[in-house]
Amino acid sequence: LNEGSFFNLQMQLNFFLPHFKLYDFADRHNADITRMIFRVANIPYEEVLIDRNNEWQQLQREMPLGTLPVLEIDGHKIGGTTAICRQLAWRFGLSGETAADDSIVDMLADFLHEAHISLKSWINAIQNVNNSEQDVESLDKMASHYVSTRLGPVLEKHLEKNGTGFLVGGKMTWADLMAVSFFNKLFDSGREGFISAFPLIKQHYQQIAPIVLPPTKFNDKLNEDTLPIALTA
Amino acid sequence: LNEGSFFNLQMQLNFFLPHFKLYDFADRHNADITRMIFRVANIPYEEVLIDRNNEWQQLQREMPLGTLPVLEIDGHKIGGTTAICRQLAWRFGLSGETAADDSIVDMLADFLHEAHISLKSWINAIQNVNNSEQDVESLDKMASHYVSTRLGPVLEKHLEKNGTGFLVGGKMTWADLMAVSFFNKLFDSGREGFISAFPLIKQHYQQIAPIVLPPTKFNDKLNEDTLPIALTA
Questions:
Q1: Do B150 and B59 share a domain, yes or no?
Q2: Which candidate in A42, B55, B76, B126 could, as Cys together with B189 as Cys, close a disulfide (CB 3.0–4.6 Å)?
Q3: CATH number assigned to the domain comprising residue B126
Q4: What residue stretches are annotated with the GST C-terminal domain (chains A, B) (predicted)?
Q5: What whole-number distance in Å separates Cα of residue A119 and Cα of residue A130?
């Protein structure tokens, strides 16, 4: 392919690609996994950031579950993290390779989603959403217990059994992204000690996070727009 | 078809049908939605009921998420309610009719699953699992608030918009079964007042529950094995 025909191919792909519109709150916490999928698949999308205090009350009625994130695909709205991710995953090749693999992806993604729901007040507290005034110390204790007795052992066992560095099969799936999203909250808040007993989870995070998270996360002091990482060596 | 060829057809179907083995605790609370799917699809399965106090500690290590329900399909184990239901739904025609419909099924099923997780301590308390000694009154208050402000309005709106009596499209999907499973807990414990403001949800439950729940639920005084309902008229 020369440059011209590559450009034509791109035009054609864009022509057939639906218009994706992602609604999230202005703090961008709720749709982080969806953004990872778009980033890995290199697919353009429109982002609508909503002010929790002003616009939300008006817009909430138009959202199918009354919550964010919401993904609009050619005008058709889907709400809820796992429904959005599953929809995008089959479009962009982030599902399991076989039906059997995909049911394990489903299982682990739902398991990680359950962790997000069960630890919601803790996550809000450490991300300081809604100026949470909860008792962080007792929430930390609960979260640490959940990670060390439930989340950690199950994921570590799956990583060991699978043995490819990914959670399921030999390729990246949206279950890997769900895991990175969860553990990113630990790494970002200085709580990576929660997973010190799980070396394979740590390794999984360190290998996948740089690919799926925004480059700024790993180069806080660099402005990625003016100084590409490749030029700094 | 005469009786002989029907028998052969059945044999053939059984030959191609995988062997399904459903693991649940002896109180049978955890796999109720899975049982509904098998009942509606009229598919045979083996049930393994586990004693929470004796066998569980030993068996827990063999379960992929360390929890029940688990569905074993020809020796391959899947854990987690939504992953199990999604797998069976596409096998037995309980998914959405189109890709767009199916993403709404996913969305509502996950939304209902979230309700089950968020209200877990309340559900345990009213079902008296683990001899829960929680404060039922304050849990009831929380659950009633969740149903009237979150679950109820979203489902009522979807039922109104869809207008077929089902949650999505013109046929039964596993989202309907997730709803029946949740609201059955209200009806069974005398708390149907929680949904008095949502007439379409009540109608949905009353139309679908008799089809998907065991007949004994609706004919407590009849022994379904010795006295078929058809003979009592």
A1: no
A2: B126
A3: 1.20.1050.10
A4: 98-229
A5: 16
- Which of B105, B111, B159 has the most A C-beta neighbours within 10 Å, making it the best mutation to test the interface with A? B111
| Whether the predicted model's global pTM rises above the 0.80 cut | yes
Same domain (yes/no): A114, A182: yes
CATH of the domain at B50: 3.40.30.10
Task: Write out pLDDT tens, residues A124-160.
Answer: 898 876 555 668 899 999 999 999 999 999 999 999 9
Give phi and psi for A21, each to the nearest 5.
Answer: -130, 120
Residues in chain A with CB shorter than 8 Å from the CB of B83 are 103, 106-107, 110
Question: In total, how many domains does chain B have?
Answer: 2
